[in-house]
Task: structure prediction
Amino acid sequence: MDISELALRAEVAWLRGLAAAGFAQVRAGDGFAVATGLDSNSDNGAVGSPGELDVLLDWLRERSVPASVLVTGPPDPDVTARLIDRGLVPERTGTNMGRRLSRTEEPPSGQWQISEANDLDELRRNQRVYAEDGWWDEAGELDRRVQIAARLGRHWTAHHQGAAVGAATSFHFDDAVLLVQCCVAAGWRRRGIGTALTRVRLAAAAAQGAVQAVVFPTQDGYHLHRSLGFEVAPVHPDRCFYLTA
Result:
């Protein structure tokens, strides 16, 4: 299992999913770029060959959004140098985590009530967990995040006595699942909520036919996922580049 190749596939699939969900996009040959308008390089981006990227980069720059730029094909030093000259920053030091899934992943059990968010009211409560934790604070961003959540991914909320204390998202692609994000409310951490949200997503993915999982870990997420059997792998350098707004 090549974890970092799986991670690249996940990034491409996520951007394709955003394009298919109807967000602003442009195409150049077999390549494409998509922009949601969010201040997030994971929710805006381009995928293409070196010959297609100039058009895609110009389109993204017109929208003044941060973005991920994924180059198809093997790394090429000349292409890398050209993209750096255009102001892009190559990803060379990050890590990814992944593991195989069993056919019957065990869902969590215990005191936390976890439910899937399937309507706009539930998605708003789900996304508000991130907002109240300070993940973003721009005016109107909650509405934009709910709009994306309604079009892409599966979302779960952990409750305690009716209050939302955790939220998480997953995205199924090919035979795999990307664990997109997870947040536990301040004051409720170190109680197993993040683990429970991760396990419910893995169980749901296995039931949907996924056989492998991948995640881009935070520092806290690294320890959580290691405890659930995930292995760590360095990124494949010079395959992903970052465009600042």
